[in-house]
């Protein structure tokens, strides 16, 4: 392969390397140094081990699991649109919009979920 072909390939690959990863929930960019994780749309415990996953900021992922049980996620929140439409998560997402893209804070389980689980 000649120098021109090699340079052309490198130039074509540049946009792919620089394309920002975007959180599927809050739709904000995930900086390379920010905490992020994959969220199983259907929880693994409910048969979603081979199902689809989406990349989320860690704070967005933690917010989902702090508010809802695995059963509730599987039953009514198994897609991104349903998650965004949920009133509790919508309030969280509105609050998050004013934060920097790489923002992270500890997330505590909601009282309602703690009481139903009977732990902590």
UniProtKB/TrEMBL annotation:
Domain of life: Bacteria
Name under which the protein is recorded: Restriction endonuclease
Organism, as annotated: Methylobacterium jeotgali
